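for the record, two folds in this file. i put them one after another cuz i was lazy. first one right below, seq on top, structure tokens after. the second one comes after a little note so u can tell where it starts
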Amino acid sequence: MTAEISPSTAENAYEIAIQEEEEKVSNLGNQALWVLIHTLLAAGSWAAMMVAITLAHPETVPVLVTTAITFAIPFLVGYLFTRVRQNEMAPYTWLIGLIWFLVICLWILDMPTGPNQCYHCDATQKIYLTFFSPNQESGLIDNEGRLLGTWPAIAFVAYSIGGSFALRKKK
């Protein structure tokens, strides 16, 4: 026994599939707008936090404390904003952070080394000393690797995690 599908059933299934695809495509603009809004909120919360730290004289604030605050403030903003305005796109801001970090890493890897600029460093040392070392600098990009690469990426990832927690709590 084989089940036969009537032509009207096949047409209905085809029309339903077409409607679902049209809804997905029409929703892409809305999703892109929300990713942009969440990205701006994450970047804005990180920038405001950095201004506050700068006003508190950054030479007195340890790198690890700044890194912890860089995570905490965007995490809270992501959590609170997503808790108030439920949106499924908040967890995707980590992709923006990853892309940002990879672009800055490529820039660093392309830089030449010399005296006072990570002399005789290989690629791993360049990346580690520029972005991750808490007490030693590479000398590349005026020792601002954390400011330009690490901390913005951490802020985007933290916002994403906060948004994920807010969406999980609501369900």
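(here's the note) second protein begins now
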Amino acid sequence: MAGTKARKSPAGTASHGAARRSRSTRHSLLNDFPLRTVFVAAGVIGLAALGIALFGPRRFRDEIIKPIGAVTYAPLAAAMAPQAEHAWAETRAWRDRVGRILESINTADVRDQVAARLANWIERFR
């Protein structure tokens, strides 16, 4: 009797392995990045709502939103201002040329010609 061992049935082993896999699958779903992101976003939104409820919307805006905006916007504006001024200076000649073209087109004679062509075009379809 001591030499006889009870054997596990293959069906019992397979079902136990399947249960173990499903538990690990559920565990890995909780560790996925998108699910964590959803939890973090929901937490941030909840904390913002709690802050608004405690402080009031005006105080929340003045003490939290504006300082965060100043910290993030000021460096971006400082970095972009020289590039924007440079781009504006580089396009000066092009802007002047387009302005002269538009001024030369915007005359009474040109407007009369456009009106006559439009009237002619409309008459074709009647």
